[in-house]
Amino acid sequence: MKPPYSLDEIKTIPLKNRWLAAFLAWLCPGLGHFYQGRTAKGLIFFCTLTPLLVAGLWMGSYWGGEETHRLCFAKNAYFQWQPGSRRLYFFPQALNAAVAVPAVIQAKVVQNGSLPLWNGAFAPPALSTLQSQEGRIVRPSLNAILLRLHSWFEMGSIFVAAAGLLNLLVIFDALCGPAWVIPEEVQEALAAEASSEKK
Fold first, then answer.
1. Residue 82: pLDDT band by 50, 70, 90 thresholds?
2. What is the pTM of this model?
C-alpha cells in the first residue's frame, strides 16, 4: 500500500557536518547534538550516559591504602592485547573517547617500559605486581586489583561497556539524524482517513 504522504513532505532537520557531529558524540555523549542545535536531545544523552560511565569507572577505582595515599582510578578500563591477556571489554568501552584515548595512551606508555601516567588511571595491569625501590606498588597485577575490588571490577566493566554501546546509538543518531518527522497536516489527514474507515 502506498503511504498517504510523499518523501518530499517529510521535514528534515539540518545536521550541519554529520561526520564532525559523530566525532563530537564519540568525544562526549550529546556533544554532537549540541553542535547540531538539538540541545534537548544532547542534554538527555549527556545526563544519562555520562553518569553511567562515571559510575562504572568509579566502581573500578580504590584508594591506594597506607602505602600510597592516592586514588587508583579506572582500573577496569584499559587496553591490553597480548597472548594470555586480551581485554575484550575494551572494544565496547572504546565507544567513549573518555575511555579509549587515555587507555590507548597508557598501553603505549607501559609497552615502552615506562611507568604509567596519571597515577596509573586506565593503565593495563602488570603480569606481576611491580614495586618501586621504596616498596610502593607502582603497577598492580590483575590479581591484586581483583583482591581489592572483588565483584566491583566486573560490575564497573559492564557499566562502562554499556555506556559505550549506548553511545554507539548516540553517535549513529548524530551521524544519520532522527527518524522522519511527519508534518501535522499529513498526521491530520491520516487521522481523518482512519476515522472515516471505522465508520
1. confident
2. 0.77
Q: How many CB atoms lie within 10 A of CB 104?
A: 15
Cell of 173: 543518531
Instruction: Output the CA torsion sign for 67, 73, 76, 79.
Output: negative
Cell representation of residue 59: 566502581
Can you give 109-174 as a three-state secondary structure string?
HHHCCCCCCHHHCCCCCECCCEECCCCCEEECEHHHHHHHHCHHHHHHHHHHHHHHHHHHHHHHHH
C-alpha cell recorded at residue 73:
582510578
Give the HSE-up count for residue 144: Cα atoms under 13 Å, Cβ half-sphere: 18
User: Which residue is it, cell 554499556?
Assistant: 162
Each domain of the chain, given as residue ranges in start order, spans: 14-177
Query: How many residues appear in the chain?
Result: 199
Interior angle at CA 85, CA 80 and CA 88, nearest 5: 65
Longest CA–CA span in the chain (Å) reads 88
Residue position matching grid coordinates 617500559:
113
Name the DSSP class of 11.
B
The secondary structure of residue 86, as a DSSP letter, is E
DSSP 9: G
Q: Is 72 helix (H, G, I), strand (E, B) or coil?
A: strand
Cell 568509579 locates to: 58
Cα(134)–Cα(79) distance, rounded to whole angstroms?
28
* Segment 6-32, tens digit of pLDDT: 544 445 667 889 999 999 999 999 999
